[in-house]
């Protein structure tokens, strides 16, 4: 299959690009290379005859038309987005422009391309979204988000993703474009941009700095190793039913404090301190406004209908992640030098 991947120089997109090429798919990576885009994430496949790169912005409709016509893909796998909740609190405008208007442009460009080729049944448009569109769950409850959970986004990031999800649903119902939609829990793993929680903790620990935890650390997230997410997306692309949505999750709920403590235990083993534990440096910092209490995904549909299951357990995934950051200092040093990275954001004032 020839897949046009948008956002393929980001964290999740690059895992998709690397896996798709490894499985023999041709990949065209369309990425604007914003502050979050990093060509080094796909360096391992850059010389493959299966790989092409197009620097383009999904807000630029003419560029999308040109790239679709030039490469004639069988499918679009759409991951390009502004993705950092704290940044969305400080500057929501670009989240609406990229996540909503950009997705609208891509849907329209794909619809024109698909119609121009006689509406092939096998064409696919897979839109990658987040569990954050469902809002927040109460602490301690057993309820999890399913594909029929109502939308209740509470941050500008989640609202922009929710809006784009609705556009995708409408383009399927109204125009018959063979769209699929996935909503996934928090990812972690190699190439995670240094401003997100897990890399912040690892890199601060390496530097001997405090390890910041928002609020009282009780917010619960459901974690999935990024390569398992990439595997799920290719599975949905190959076997999912157009018009259907699939929730993707690792069934690994951890409070932020428990997550940071687990990371400290791995760091104590892999990068021990002369004295004491990395956990001694945990500090509580002012919370993010509107910080959702708990996310949890019920992945029964993708498991039962498509036979997908995560392959990497949480402890194993954390060890792989810490080991990767320890071995790839050149990668993260270059990114932490980018303007504004590492500054506390999203305090809402
Ligand atoms: N990271 C997670 O835990 C997670 C979980 C569920 C869903 N998702 C979704 O997966 C997708 C990718 O997330 P990520 O964490 O890899 O994000 P990321 O910020 O690491 O990467 C985003 C990529 O998109 C590119 N991009 C941004 N704006 C663009 C534009 N206007 N035109 C073209 N390219 C543009 C960036 O250059 C970057 O390479 C997002 O849609 C996100 O909502 C992420």
UniProtKB/TrEMBL annotation:
It is an enzyme of class 4 (lyase). Its cofactor is NAD(+). One of its GO terms (biological process) is nucleotide-sugar metabolic process. The keyword Lyase applies. Its EC number is 4.2.1.46. It catalyses: dTDP-alpha-D-glucose = dTDP-4-dehydro-6-deoxy-alpha-D-glucose + H2O. Keywords: Lyase, NAD. Residues 4-321 form the NAD(P)-binding domain. It comes from the Bacteria. One of its GO terms (molecular function) is dTDP-glucose 4,6-dehydratase activity. It holds the Pfam family GDP_Man_Dehyd. Belongs to the NAD(P)-dependent epimerase/dehydratase family. dTDP-glucose dehydratase subfamily. PANTHER family: DTDP-D-GLUCOSE 4,6-DEHYDRATASE-RELATED (PTHR43000). This is dTDP-glucose 4,6-dehydratase. It comes from Psychromarinibacter sediminicola. The gene is rfbB.
């Amino acid at each position: 299959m020839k897949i046009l991947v948008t956002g393929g120089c980001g964290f999740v997109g690059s895992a998709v690009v690397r896996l798709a090429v490894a499985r023999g798919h041709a990949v065209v990576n369309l990425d604007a290379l914003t502050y979050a885009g990093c060509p080094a994430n796909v360096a391992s496949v850059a010389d493959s005859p299966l790989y092409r790169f197009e620097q383009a912005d999904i807000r630029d409709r003419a560029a999308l038309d040109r790239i679709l016509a030039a490469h004639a893909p069988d499918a679009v796998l759409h991951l390009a987005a502004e993705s950092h909740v704290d940044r969305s609190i400080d500057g929501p405008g670009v989240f609406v422009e990229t996540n909503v208007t950009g997705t609208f442009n891509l849907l329209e460009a794909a619809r024109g391309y698909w119609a121009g080729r006689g509406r092939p049944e096998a064409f696919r448009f897979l839109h990658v979204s987040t569990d954050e569109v469902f809002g927040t769950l109460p602490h301690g409850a057993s309820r999890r988000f399913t594909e029929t959970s109502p939308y209740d986004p509470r941050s500008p990031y989640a609202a922009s993703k929710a809006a784009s999800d609705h556009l995708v649903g409408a383009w399927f119902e109204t125009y018959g474009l063979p769209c699929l939609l996935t909503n996934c829990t928090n990812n972690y793993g190699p190439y995670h941009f240094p401003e997100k929680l897990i890399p912040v903790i690892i890199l601060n620990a390496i530097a001997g700095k405090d390890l910041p935890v928002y609020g009282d650390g009780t917010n619960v997230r459901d974690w999935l190793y990024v390569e398992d997410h990439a595997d799920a997306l290719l599975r949905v692309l190959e076997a999912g039913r157009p018009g259907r949505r699939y929730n993707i999750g690792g069934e690994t709920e951890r409070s932020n404090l428990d997550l940071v403590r687990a990371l400290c235990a791995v760091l104590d083993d892999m990068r021990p301190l002369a004295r004491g534990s990395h956990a001694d440096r945990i500090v509580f910092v002012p919370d993010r406004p509107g910080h959702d209490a708990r996310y949890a995904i019920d992945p029964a549909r993708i498991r039962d209908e498509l036979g997908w299951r995560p392959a990497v357990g949480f402890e194993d995934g954390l060890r792989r992640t810490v080991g990767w950051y320890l071995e790839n200092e050149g990668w993260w040093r270059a990114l932490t030098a980018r303007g504004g990275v590492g500054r506390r954001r999203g305090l809402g004032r």
